Automatic annotation (TrEMBL):
The keyword Transferase applies. It comes from Roseinatronobacter bogoriensis subsp. barguzinensis. This is Aspartate aminotransferase family protein. CDD domains: OAT_like (cd00610). NCBIfam families: PRK07483.1 (NF005685).
Length: 439
């Protein structure tokens, strides 16, 4: 009997008692390799001494200060650190407690930008069907995951959805990457024209789609086209890097690899590496100036925003990533992981696609490789893979079901940035056994 409401009431989770580096230990003494960083969170692995020391020092100094009264050195330093390496044009940071809060803040910033600049008719939010932006009502409304949205629809604000750029599922036979990128990005322009050119506030997308589709990067110059369309119609571009940001794909921000800068950028997960709950919304100088020269404040706020302990965790994690040159390891181990996945699943009868960037890789399971037909969702293949993996001491992040009729089950891997080639071999070996046992 538990008084804690778990995610799944009928299959309560195992009890974790400790974790060190890549490994969890449960209450029965079993060990698990954390090959998904939880949900792409634990980028440094567990119990990193530098982060623990920074948290102890911060706790001794100052655990909490409400931002209505004080700022703190640690929050200021984290903002400076993030902006120093941020995509061009981003100038300020709004610190919150997680990814959904960061997305909520970005949506509100977009709306307030237009009320401050005399365009109150701009209210529409456009997003993509294969997307997840969080579970709070605004973020859920923006997201395209029908399963998560269905029963809450009566509570959700209006949002509009276009197709994602998802080559495996939506690129036509014989279509070049350039043509597909143009066709997929063209959906945004068409939607803006349909809604009315001066009524759209923002377009929001994940540069590499995470939980809803499994490590799906865009092809060709898709994002350059998206940026150009947003500029053409004065629409703000929000990039949600809650899962794919902070080094996960091999560059600090995933959009660096797409060669663009957004107007608003959300991060969380790897920002604090799981050592504290933290998220952030980065905003451009243009938006900041609209607030500064307009009402003088952003009409939003949470009790725990800019929390000193969370900021200390974020700062310590970012210092370790730099000091240990971990982005280079993400790049090298990303190649290693892709090669090992290719070796293990490249010829597999039920693996249709292997994709991703850096240490953010996924395999997609299909009933039939030729037709790409997904497995019947009733089989709950993703859940079986998760439990077969756990039985083999492996934590991975499988998701499943069919959304929009175009997606099969996938397994997402997002191991900590400290993995070695032998860890990668252990992960792919155990995953291969788990997938075959689940099929
Ligand atoms: N945005 C993206 C892209 C995510 O992957 C997630 C979480 O998985 C969120 C937002 C929501 O973040 P959180 O669960 O921290 O609220």
């Amino acid at each position: 009997m538990t008084h804690l409401l778990h995610r799944s009431i009928h299959t309560p989770p195992r009890h974790a008692v400790s974790a060190q580096g890549l490994h969890f230990t449960d209450s029965e003494g079993r060990q698990y390799i954390d090959a998904s960083g939880g949900a792409a969170v634990s980028c440094l692995g567990h119990a990193h001494p530098d982060v623990i020391a920074a948290l102890h020092a911060q706790l001794d100094r100052l655990a909490y200060a409400h931002t209505g009264f004080f700022t703190t050195d640690v929050a200021e330093e984290l903002a400076d650190t993030l902006i120093a390496d941020a995509p061009a044009g981003l100038s300020h940071v709004y610190l919150v407690s997680g990814g959904s809060e960061a997305v909520e803040a970005a949506l509100k910033m977009a709306r307030q930008y237009f009320t401050e600049t005399g365009q109150p008719q701009r209210r529409h939010i456009i997003a993509r069907r294969q997307s997840y932006h969080g579970n709070t009502l605004g973020a859920l409304a923006a997201g395209g995951n029908e399963w998560r949205r269905a029963q809450f629809k009566p509570l959700l604000m209006e949002a509009h959805h276009i197709a994602p750029c998802f080559a495996y599922r939506e690129q036509w036979e014989g279509e070049t990457d350039a043509d597909y990128a143009a066709r997929a990005a063209g959906e945004l322009e068409a939607k803006i024209l349909e809604l009315g050119v001066d009524t759209v506030a923002a377009f929001v997308a994940e540069p590499v789609v995470g939980a809803t589709a499994g490590a799906v990067p865009a092809v060709g110059d898709y994002y350059k086209r998206i940026r150009a369309i947003c500029d053409k119609y004065g629409v703000l571009l929000i990039l949600d890097e809650v899962m794919c940001g902070m080094g996960r794909t091999g560059s600090l921000y995933a959009c660096e690899q797409d060669g663009i800068s957004p107007d608003l950028l959300t991060i969380a997960k790897g920002l604090g590496g799981g050592y504290q709950p933290i998220g952030a919304t980065l905003l451009s100088e243009k938006i900041y100036q609209a607030f500064a020269q307009g009402s003088g404040f952003f009409q939003h706020g949470h009790t725990y925003m800019g929390h000193p302990m969370a900021a200390a965790a974020g700062l310590a994690v970012q210092k370790v990533i730099k000091q240990d040159n971990l982005l280079a390891n993400v790049q090298a181990m990303g190649v290693e992981l892709r090669q090992q996945l290719q070796a293990a699943f490249g010829q597999h009868a039920h693996v249709g696609d292997i994709r991703g960037r850096g240490l953010f890789q996924a395999i997609e399971l299909v009933e039939d490789r030729q037709t790409k037909a997904p497995f019947d969702p009733a089989r709950k293949l993703h859940a079986r893979i998760k439990s077969e993996a756990m039985a083999r001491g492996l934590m991975v992040y499988p998701m499943g079901g069919t959304i929009d009729g175009v997606r099969g089950d996938h397994v997402l891997l997002a191991p900590p940035f400290i993995v070695t080639p032998s860890d990668v071999a252990e992960i792919t070996g155990r995953l291969s056994e788990a997938v075959n046992a689940a099929l």
